[in-house]
Specification:
Nuclear Transport Factor 2, Chain: A, five-stranded antiparallel sheet, 5 helices, 5 strands, about 40% helix, about 20% strand, Lipoprotein, signal
Length: about 140
């Protein structure tokens, strides 16, 4: 009888411990979106704002480029738009630091291996180009 009670007690403890262990694991939502370094692709940004607003940001960045730079861009419509911060801008075109919503627009070029992509930083509120990426 003692052995049976010991076995039942042991099994109860094991089952209880495994359910505690299982409940401590975070649940995974299969619709969750994992983004590295808080970077957003064009698709994920469309959830936060309209496609028209995103196109406007890309077009304003495109208009800032020189004609010779535009000729090296592989496909303007495949530009990558990411949220950014003022501190992340390598070459700042302004000293103001009161921007609320900054986006980084990256254009792939046929010179990426040699110089890197063309990167433009824009404030979405003022529509002002506030910085650019450094190229090699």
């Amino acid at each position: 009888m003692r052995t049976l009670a010991f076995v039942l007690l042991t099994m109860t403890l094991l089952v209880g411990c495994s359910s505690i262990h299982t409940s401590q694991r975070p649940s995974v939502n299969e619709n969750s979106e994992i983004l590295n370094n808080n970077a957003y692709t064009k698709t994920s940004l469309q959830k936060e704002r309209s496609a028209a607003q995103e196109d406007e940001i890309i077009n304003l960045s495109w208009d800032y480029l020189s004609n010779s730079a535009k000729k090296t861009v592989i496909n303007k419509n495949e530009a990558i738009v990411e949220k950014s911060t003022f501190e992340q801008i390598p070459i700042k075109l302004t000293k103001k630091n009161n921007y609320t919503e900054i986006y980084k627009v990256t254009f792939s070029t046929n010179q990426d291996e040699l110089l890197g992509p063309i990167v433009i930083f824009i404030d979405s509120q003022t529509k002002e180009i506030i910085g650019k990426g450094a190229r090699k």
